[in-house]
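Protein 1 of 2
SEQ + STRUCT:
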Amino acid sequence: MSELIRVPDIGTGEGEVIELFVKVGDRIEAEQSLLTLESDKASMEIPAPKAGVIKSLAVKLGDRLKEGDDLLELEVDGEPVAVSETTDSNPEIVAASTPVPAVSAGAAASIASVAEVAAENIIEDIHVPDIGSSGKARVIELLVAVGDQVTEEQSLLTLESDKASMEIPSPVSGEVVEVLVRLDAEVGTGDLIFKVKVAQAASSQVVAAAPVAPTVSAAPVAAAPKPSPAVSVAPETAPTPDQRKKTAAVHAGPAVRKLAREFGVDLSLVSGSGPNQRVMKEDVHAYVQSVLSKQTHAAVEQGSGIAPIPAVDFARFGEIEEVAMTRLQQVGAMNLHRSWLNVPHVTQFESADITELEAFRVGQKAVAEKAGVKLTILPFLLKACAHLLQEMPDFNSSLAPSGKALIRKKYVHLGFAVDTPEGLLVPVIRDVNQKSLLQLAAEAAELADKARNKKLTAEQMQGACFTISSLGHIGGTGFTPIVNAPEVAILGVSRATMQPVWNGEDFAPRLILPLSLSYDHRVINGAAAAHFTRRLSELLAEIRSLLL
């Protein structure tokens, strides 16, 4: 049966659709995220209440939604489950319905007098409000510090859970006297996070609003539970009060603030292009690009690089077309340029006779097919390189930031370049030295498929010790790959060809594989590089030697 799904209670009034995770025809599960809504104070993912197939969507990017608005029509799986409405006992409702005993004029005057005296020194405990049923959330931003003056509804900190990020506002105005949380701490509904010395007006209202006891008892007042000790942010890592105030005053949603933190951008320096000068994600990206451009020009002016290529108006010579590079191509170009400028490159060339290896590979075709994999030459290259990285540990190292030591790795993770329509990606296979040829073949095929379908995670492209870039499926007799810093070497592999090789009596046809090893000359000297390529050639020529 079909069911109309509406926006649940989002607690923020209205929000803008900034991400859509589903489309018509998708099958979804209960609690699967449908879209992301963003308001001035929070961004949250709206989950599906039931499983089913989406028949139609009633929203699009940029729409502003509130509780009860139509989201989508869902073909629900199975019979809908009736939800019975139950009314839990609510202490506030009970309290509201209970008559408050009358208070004598003398007692009221006495209480009012006490309130006036205590107004100057009342300390309000600020707790985490109801943040929903997600349990805990992480503190990702502290917007105030001890000594700061805050106003009612001013944001104190930003929390982030798996489904939402939200700013917690102050319920009172006053001075922050104690911070009871730290960055990255996990907090939940009701946790004590701040102590604020409230201003006179606010404190008078708090005292006046407190319920009045019918009689004054001589019994001592029960002591309140002691809060956990305050944890202060280290001064060297915390922003200054002025920076916090400026950043907090910027009109930007949590998603934008999170992006700014990832880039290390001070939001008070970014010009907003949204309504009421609201800072958008595009504004942060534009600011980062501007800063990088300025840094590049400054580096040239300081003599750390060659002068930039002068701009040319190519349209003077004929018709042109400007095609934007993909984001992946831009990032790849920047990384390659950085590696080329920072690493003194040298390339060592070698040829490997893989005639016997190829015969073995073809002979194992049936075994590989039975295992559900295609056995290419890549697993053999991975296995041989992993063996050499352990035999020659300088190739499995990185130059320390000081430039005075090597960081040798005890693990063997290898990256391999995959050409995709969007640009070059380098997934990483971990612990290559501990895996069989068939395991490597299966994992390489799976990662390559993810790369071409944009499903690689950031973690699957990190941690490589050494990279293999193969162009054998395209052609060529050799090339000079660029070292993928902070690695110190990269192996380029070209197309294998049949060539006549003199065996002492006559020329015999042999399958020859061209190898190109580019390396960081600060770490690897020429003799070590030549030894590496020669040993690699020997291992590939007699692959069984890996068993010794």
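Protein 2 of 2
SEQ + STRUCT:
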Amino acid sequence: MQVNPVSEVSFKCTSNVKPTKKVEAVTQPIETEKTAMPSAATLQAMHGIKPQKMGVAKPTPVTHTNYEASQLIAEAGVFLSKRDLKNVKKVLAKGDEQTSNVMMQLELIKNGDIESSTLSHYWETGKMNDNLAKDLDMVYEARKAGKNVADVYVPNVKSQAEGNKTTKVGDVFKVADQDKIYVKTDENESRQLDMDKDMFIKLFPPAKRFTTQQQSIGDCYLVSTLGTLMNNDKARVALYEAFHQDGKDVTVKFKNGYGEYKYENAELPKDRVQKYSLKGSTGIRILEDAYGLDSVNKADANFKKIMNEKIAKKREEVEKAPMNKKADAMKSLAGHQKRLDDYLEAKADPNRTVVVCRDDNFYNIYYEEDENGLKFADLKDDPDNKSDKFHRAADFYRGSLGGYNFEVMERFGFGGFRQWNLNFEEKEVKAQMMKDNFNKDYVMTGGTRASGGRVENPVAEAAGVYGFHAYTLEPQKDEKGNLTVRCTNPWNTSYDADISYDKFLEYYDSVSIVDVNSYGKNLPLQEQPVKYGKDGAIMDKDSKEAPVIWYNNDKTNAQKVEVKKA
């Protein structure tokens, strides 16, 4: 099929549509003193659905009238946009497994277990996330059997060996005589987490751990990657291992991070602006916040490193300069030294919020500079913050110019990364996606082509596909081996939507594929594409010339690799 030239916006987004205002339920996920909810079978029977097996089953067809569907939604205290209400009613009228899942979800919302917002951004062709549906099953089955949901979610076992045998990869368990729990990392292996059972449940309660929603800040690259990691059985261990418990507090430390970030009572500080923080489990919300703080430290470290290197070079120039050039060289050295001194002074002032000015070019972020080296500004005065959008440097760094999925993967400790350009490597990407067990051993994220500028504009709204946006992607094969792609919009990770492979190529311009088995092994991270023209020179970002060599595999020197257009 015909595809457009690669755009410079893959894997990044800078803004988000304003979500419909909704009332959130109080979330206390699995306290045992609550009255047990109706079981899955009971709930289905109440609404005329005849189950064929325990838990979520394939129900016999039943049609809810608009009135009955509205009653179910109203009883749960859910306030939906007209579009979402229409789509949810359609699901409730199907009388299939998805109907049963949503009915369970409404009961959980009514009971205060998960937020009402999890039904927002409900795409017309969407389907409930499989992991969310499994968690709903687990809660209902536990309550039907009169069991403590916490003990089903985090089972107690006699030994680590027993936990390895009885627990699924990505799930956790508690060994009887130990406070800290374990996570199963592979078929026959597990590792101990640095937190106890109660802390884990507070950070990652069942069902809610899979219901993440991006808010008004433009960090779709980050939210989609967090959702991607959570939804892969092997990869989610990276999220869990970022936390370290100290009594009631937790500290977050990324494997390839730039600092440690403490959260008292394992909660976001009260000064955080709600609309700038995602909705979802406490653990995911903290990780989003910590990533922003870590990005501030990364920018700070890079600023000082680059400026010190420039100052050292300027000193050499002063020493080597002839007498008629020495005054200019000394002036330049003094300007650079003054810039660094001013920055250090500003950073030390508690009344100032300082950010390093940045610019972007294709897949790389550069720091802006003038004759005195790298530039910085007070956040309130920064050109990228004209509307006073960001209150903290952390918000600026995670949302200002967007960012890249691969950066998040690297920060969490994944290597063996490869990014693919769909304009030139479509055949290679398809071969990767057709691998058996692809979704078990790999995670894939992607960026849609620009559609009307640097904002997310609807491209295939029924499937939740918007231009200039980042997504979780999962290849799916039907019985005949036909390939489709499951797309998950970070505006609500509770729901996926499938599109054809041809549409996938039309909507997306690049994807990144990460081997989840690379986690913690310090494998080299393959760097991102740099576009070259036919003469071998790096192309201007606005150039429309078709590149013939574009791949960069080194952080300092571009490695030219010829790419033939398919």
